[in-house]
Amino acid sequence: MQDNKKSAEGDTAHYQLSIINYQFSKAQSPERPTRKQACLTAAPRTHSQGRPPPLEGGAEILAKRRSETLVGELKKEVFIIMNTIETLMTRRSCRDFSPKMPDEQTVCEILKAGSYAATGMNRQSPIIVCVTNRHTRDWLSRLNADILGKADFDPFYGAPVIIIVLADKNVPTHVYDGSLVMGNLMNAAHEKGLASCWIHRAKEEFETTEGKEFLRSLGIEGDYEGIGHCALGYASGDPAPASPRKENYISFAR
Questions:
Q1: How far is it, in rounded angstroms, from Cα 157 to Cα 237?
Q2: FRET partner for 138 with CA separation of 20 to 30 A, picked from 6, 42, 46, 224?
Q3: What letters, b where the CB count within 10 A reaches 16 and e where it falls short, cover 205-240?
Q4: Residues with Cβ < 8 Å from 50, sequence gap 6 or more?
Q5: Which domains are delineated in the chain?
Q6: What is the pTM of this model?
Q7: pLDDT at 240
Q8: CA–CA distance, 86 with 244 (Å, rounded to integer)
Q9: Four-point Cα dihedral 226, 232, 238, 239, nearest 10
Q10: Sign of the C-alpha dihedral, residues 86, 88, 89, 94?
Q11: pLDDT tens, 205-226?
């Protein structure tokens, strides 16, 4: 009797996979199956027309619910992928920020996204310093402007939040690692409805005595190189449209 029960459960599982495979394959182009679809096409013993044998009673309801759940998850995954591509292609650098301070939760989510950037051999050489204190932000702006050689100029364009990315010089990939963190921060900011801009001269800033003392005041010790500042906040106006991509941007070696 126990063997019969296991056999029935196996048949039900087979029917469930068959229904999922059938429903999902109808929603996709047969010429271009997705990875998820390819995984589900292994369900055997379907009818020649591609339809699974009918189920009865509770088994039919259970299989239908599970198949609808999986198909819904797949649709959600496709939406997320499309939304990521859209975010990457519509992000713009902002050079005119509103003084309005973003909420802390949103900033923390952006910082977390930055910390998940790819790094060489997963050494995680970068560190992130988030400046929200107005006095510290203005001091950093003056230090950056001095390096730029433009007194009475705000290199951060009025952004209320400045995220500094530094990386350990002892790691050979530290500049690349920190650059990927910067990219994550800017793209995550755009996805959260905030504007951003990569501001340079972080390297020079943290080679100065003032810059090194600032890091020590935060308890940061080590040989770190400044990679960049992510100026963060709300844009004062609408972003400009993207400029055309140059003709030779992409090449193929087929």
A1: 13
A2: 224
A3: bbeeeebeebbeeeeeeeebbbbbbbbbbbbeeeee
A4: 22, 25
A5: 2-90 (no CATH), 104-233 (3.40.109.10)
A6: 0.70
A7: 87
A8: 16
A9: 20
A10: positive
A11: 999 999 999 999 999 999 999 9
